[in-house]
Hints:
By secondary structure, this protein is α/β, with parallel strands linked by helices. It is built from 15 helices and eight strands.
Amino acid sequence: MKAVRRTRSLPGLLLAVLALVALTLGAPPATAATGVSTIADALRESPVYVDPAAADQLSTADADTLVRQIKNADKPLFIAVLPAGYPTQDLFTNLRTATGVTGLYAVRLGDRFDARADSAVLPRTAVQNLVTSVQGEDTKAQLTDFTDRALANMGGKAPASWGGGSTGGSGVSSTALITIGAVVVAGGAGAYAMVRRNRRRHEEEQRAALDRLRVVVDEDITAFGEELDRLDFHPAEPGADDAMRADYERALNAYDQAKSAMADARRPEDVRAVTQALEDGRFSLAQLAARREGRPLPERRPPCFFDPRHGPSVTDAAWTPPGGAPREVPVCAADATRLADGRDPVVREVDTEYGRRPYWDAGPAYGPWAGGYFGGGILPGLLLGTALGGWMSAPAYAADYGTGYGDFGGYDTGGYQGGDVSGADFDPGDFGDFGGGGDFGGGGGDSGDFGGGF
């Protein structure tokens, strides 16, 4: 009887096994990747997303700490923690498209890390340097360090969908309400006297900063005038053509513009127009010299990072400031040779109360000076980790010397600022596949890839 029951149950058992196999083959794997749309939906609600399959990489408490930090900073920084096997092809482009918000996107994928950003928020060079500076760290340390450095350098505002930071969404912070109440209680006369006193002190500080800058800028103007003399070009000389004369005229106009702008300067931020004119003039001189010598015209590059008086840079070279992270900086031919030989570059030093110091350690007033030379497109990456970079990211700097990096222009915003909902309207050249990245972490990849060595 037992044998009969065993024989009669065999077809049913086979059917059950076949059904189980069919279900297994037809079902998605248990570790199927979370869809990009799901990640994007989460990031529109909160700046940090931790995939369930990567929950062991970052604790809920650590993720909440990052969320509070980013919201309080009011910056459009998005962080996703994903499992090691997550597909990387077009990940950043697809994530940016699905999220639809202009910002800086960072992804920790297993033990790998990379980031991309809209150029309105942070230039590509700055993103590269930030990614490089945190490679090899564990998840918590890496995301914490990256967040700290990114928030200090990036532009833009957090998206409204996050619900604001520490102000509780009321639109007015408790600090502001307390300050207003204190002024009212103190009385109109006392408040007026305090405002006048603070204004006078601020004006004195501005004048002192401008006086220090004036010495350096006058040196820059003088050096450019000497370059004009050394060139010894005469518009009527044999071989001169209209293109050469146009270059020379632009250089002369830049020289006059720089002198006029410095004479009219009343605040440190006014110096930006002076150094910007000098940079334009030096490029015109470089074009003129190439035409006279029959050489190919130079490409438009920023000046030498170590001293803009060296003229337009010819290449980028790796450099690490004392106590800072390595980064690529534009250098002149002479400094490129010095660095390649293991020697120190010739750095522009200025007088400070502590003696001669490199300009990036000389005080916040040199932010506008550097901004005129380098513009906002590369300045954050160049100054990352230096004293000047730290000053420029502070709220006090925005109040005294402009709005920081974003005030220097050079960003291709496309009409959208950080945190704006632009949907799929963004420059795909700012995003791309994970990894690759030229000199940032090794490995190959096309020119649009960088960072992490993925």
